[in-house]
Specification:
This protein is an alpha/beta fold. The protein has a domain of 221 residues: Alpha/Beta hydrolase fold, catalytic domain (Rossmann fold). Helix content is 41%, strand content 14%. The protein contains 14 helices and 12 strands. The strands form 3 sheets. It has an 8-stranded mixed beta sheet, sandwiched between helices. A two-stranded antiparallel sheet has the order 6-7. Helix 4 links the parallel strand 3 and strand 4. The longest helix has 22 residues. This is AB hydrolase-1 domain-containing protein. Keywords: Signal. It comes from Caenorhabditis nigoni. One of its GO terms (biological process) is lipid catabolic process.
Amino acid sequence: MKWITVAAALAVINTATCGHDVHKHFMAWMKQHYTPEEVKAFVRDDLTTGSIGGGPLTKETNDRPVVFVHGLNNEAGNLWKVARVFAAHGFPTQYMFATTWGRGLEPTNFNVGMSCAHVRHIRRFIEMVLKYTGAKQIDVIGYSMGSPIARKAILGGKCVDDANVALGPSLQSRIHTYISVAGANQGSYLCGLPFFEICNMNTGLSCNSKFLADINWFKNYESSYKSFNLASSGDSVVGYMACGKKASEFPGGHEWKVEGMNHEQTEFDTAEIQLKMLRESTDGKSKSRPAGKNSFAEVKKYLNTKRRDVKPLKTAKPVPKKVAAKKGAPKKAAPPKKAPAKKAAPAKRASPKKAAPPKKNQKPARH
């Protein structure tokens, strides 16, 4: 992995990114809503570019905020290639967010597991972006080892390595689209034996680790619209196959296979494919905010049309039920018809009295 070369390129391209590339608007918001220790943990000024994102929108957009979750021995700023392509295709830079969950850019380090601390860090960052943007839903893209970490952050529940720590309920309803890029969702083919921390059987990338079993036990929890699995046949880090399975596949994920790309190329040189996935549901057009020259006028027209469509439905459904209830009540009042049976009783009692005259006729017959 040539991460040092990438870091040098970052420094040459924009030295202002040293420390973080968080917009001052986002920074001020964080300081207002979180403790200094929490802000420091999210910003990561100890790294080359420990975090990115934020800022007020300057124009209307049809895209949702997206949280990038980097992979092993990486950091937020190293996703600049992906961010650059997104921006070139009109995706607002204010809607691209990332924080660093590990020790950042460094020579390959195998003593790293998918610990509760890393999962909680990403979980809280996702929740932060939801609060900051006010978006009903956001998108999440997990790269390499960042994919299983992001999936666990979305899944919630208890930490694998510490059952006393509860992450919280599932975030599925708040995630529109999830994308795994070269993700180690079934482990790594390099972890055939549980060597080093990265391949441990608890929170490592060994095929049968407890962590992987935990996130692969459920299906379709990563998103409310669709989840994608972007993998390459030429990946030599995670591998295309691991333990007899496709290393990057996960239950419910829709595979998008590329040929011949190595691990890094799959992560950073497929940005256009990743953006296409994010925009698949509406082809870049929001369901609630149609695109157009007079966007705001069209939104108002759309909402008015929607209200006219909804009102009849709200009144039409309960009315038949109420009418049926009122008509049904008189049918239950039928018992009064039984009253005539009681009036017929006196007629039966009167019949014996009419039979008395024949006795009077018998007496004259004897005289």
